[in-house]
Every structure is written in structure tokens, then in C-alpha cells.
Amino acid sequence: MTLDDLPTPCLVLDRVVMTRNIARMAEAVGRHGVALRPHMKTAKSIDVARLALEGQPGGITVSTLAEAEYFSAHGISDILYAVGITPQKLDQVAKLNAMGAQIIVITDDTDTAAGIAAHPQPPRTLIEIDTGESRGGIAPDSDALVEIAERLGPRLAGVMTHAGHSYGAHSVSEITEIAEHERAGVVQAAERLRSVGHAAPIVSMGSSPTALHAVTLTGVTEVRAGVYMFGDLFQAEIATHGIDDIAVTVVTSVIGRQPGRVLIDAGGLALSKDRSTEGREKDYGFGLVLDLAGQRSYGDAIVRRAYQEHGVVELNPERAATLKVGDKLRIAPNHTCMTAAAHDRYHVVDGGEEVVAVWSRVNGW
Fold it and tell me: What are the backbone angles phi and psi of residue 138, rounded to the nearest 5°?
């Protein structure tokens, strides 16, 4: 079976490109002598996880309990659920842990910390630290840090942070500065806890940009990153990888033709409506158009508009005239996490057009 045989729209994963991306991250983190805890929120696939974990201690990060259940059922036990836990989810975590998982949760809330400690089967817990993203977490010097630690008691496992604001950087030097602020903040929080008698064995930080460009990770025990495995147009724009390092694309069919543009059957649901590159140096619309071999035969042709099930591709009129209804294209996504979320499987290729495997994904919450 080849890509031309697939029903469209569908998701394609180039294993050669992905393996190269995984090796690059492993090398970048490995030079600091810290563990890599791959974030599986993008891939959501045991087949990808096994490749990402080669040479690593074996722990992963997830963003849903559905992922935690799926990966634990496939033999991965060391799992960090990196979304603030709610009291209502503690029973589900306890159930999974009783079945052999070792799920760690996070919180930045004093009441939730007390609820965790009071649970009959309290999970190990990290305190979430805000090192500049202003999403979740408390400041490293917050009075609440010690209070949360005291409420968690022996269930305290350490601290974690995420420099999601690194996505707003416009140069590698800026990412490097953010990485150091991220590292210094989470290490400061850990040292504060230790100074008052609390153990903090886990000091966890990471985003793909800061993991790759950090100058030092002194004091950090593990790094979390996820999108690096697949890459996307936005990550290429912020120098996480090159434009040829995007491992995931969407195969789509031409369903209509007009002068200077074609209509395709991949719209907002198949591609997502993420416009993250809109504010960057190069705006890729709703995705970059490639030929079926994954090459940029159409230059800078992009999906200019995205409806629910329709996309409008603008391209050179002469090139548009060569396409006919039924021809297939591949679209490199703006934000691969969002794009992949609409699909339930990967059609795997090894650098060509032959489909060598089909890998399932776990979706939902």
C-alpha cells in the first residue's frame, strides 16, 4: 500500500525523520547528564513512545488520564501527569496505581495538596512552579511553596515547571535566556524546600526549545519535551528544528480547481485552525503544501483558508493547472499537536511513499 491508496484526509508519520528528531533531543539532553522524560501528549502512541524511550530511564509525561491508562496498560509505569490534578481525579489515579502504574501528579494549590495527603492512596506529587509562562504554578519565592509542601508531607516528590513562553521567543539567544530563567527558578524552589527539611528528589523542567538550547541544567534532574519528535512549521520558525524535520503531515485530495487555487478535502478538523505562524517571520496559513513524496514542489504554496472539511490552497496558476481532481497532496502542519488530535492513527512511511505500518493513537481525556 502506498500513500496514493489511502483515504483522505489521513495522518502520515515519517519514521526516518522522527527517529532523527528523537536522536537530536537525546543528544542535547544527554550532554547535561540529566534524564529525558518524553512528553507523549503530541504522539499519544506506544509505538512512538518505545522509540523515544530508547536509551532513557523509562519515564514519560502525559497530559490526560486516558493517556496514563493507555501507556500503563502497555507496560510503561513511571508516568508524570503534568496537568494540575483535581480532587475528583484522585480515585482514578489511585486505581491505576493500584494496578501497577506509578503516576505522579502536580498541584499549585494548598487545598488540593491537603486533599491529596488525606486520600486513602495518595500519589506522589510535584509542586508546579511558574518560571515566566504565567499559566499554572506559583513563584519560586512564594510563601505558598512551603505551605503546600507541608500539606503534602511525605507525598511531596519535588518540583516541576514548564517554559511555554519560550514559544514566543524570536531568537536562539532569547530561548537560551528563557531556559536559564526556567532552570534557575525551579532549582531555587527545590533548594528552598530542602532548606526547611523537605525532600525534593525530582526537579523537572522543559519545553522542546529550552531543552535543546539550554546552556546548563545544573540542579535539574529531568527534562520534559514532546513536540520535538514530530516538529511543525511553528517549531521550525523558532529554530527548534529545520523545515525538513517535520515528521507528520496530512494527506489530502484535490476536490476542486479554480485559476490559481485548488480545493482540498482537509479543512479545520483535519489540519486544525491553529495560526501560530501568523505572527512569525513566515506565515504558513493553515499549512504548507507538499507533493505526495513530501517535497516542496509547489514552492511556498499554503492552505490559505480552512473550513470544517474544506481547505483552499493558493499556488502558482501554472502549477494549479497541473493538478486534477483526485490528485493527492501532503500538508505540513502549523501545530502538529493540534493537527494529530483529530486523527486516530498514523500511516507510517520510511522516507518514501510506501506505508510500512499503521500505528494507533489514544485520544480523549
Answer: -115, 160
Measured between alpha carbons, how far is 47 from 18 in angstroms, rounded to an integer? 12
Question: CA nearest 64: which of 32, 35, 33, 96?
Answer: 96
Q: How many residues does the chain have?
A: 365
Q: What cell was used for 328? A: 493527492
E runs forming strands in the chain: 10-14, 35-38, 60-62, 78-84, 102-107, 125-129, 156-161, 202-205, 222-225, 248-258, 261-264, 288-290, 302-306, 311-314, 328-332, 345-349, 357-360
Look up the CATH architecture of domain 3-11+247-360.
Beta Barrel (2.40)
pLDDT at 17: 98
User: Is the backbone of residue 158 left (phi > 0), alpha (psi -120 to 50) or beta?
Assistant: left
Measure the CA–CA gap between 147 and 134, rounded to whole angstroms.
20
Look up the pTM and report it.
0.96
CATH code for residues 32-229: 3.20.20.10
Nearest Cα neighbor of 266 from 339, 177, 162, 356 is 339
Domain boundaries, the chain: 3-11+247-360, 32-229
- With contact defined as beta carbons under 8 Å apart, do 314 and 260 qualify? yes
> Around 361, how many Cα atoms within 13 Å sit in the side-chain half-sphere?
23
How is residue 116 written as a grid cell? 491529596
Alpha carbon distances (Å) from 216 to 1, 128, 131, 177:
46, 21, 16, 11
Let me know: does 46 contact 345? Beta carbons within 8 Å.
no
pLDDT at position 15:
98
Pairing of strands 261-264, 311-314: antiparallel
State how far the alpha carbon of 15 is from the alpha carbons of 1, 117, 185, 348, 358, in Å. Answer: 16, 43, 36, 6, 11
- Ranges in the chain, pLDDT < 70: none
Give the span between the Cα atoms of 1 and 15, in whole angstroms.
Answer: 16
Report yes or no: 254 and 264 within 8 Å, Cβ to Cβ: yes
What does the block give as the cell for 25? 533531543
> Which of 34, 22, 84 has its CA nearest to residue 228?
22
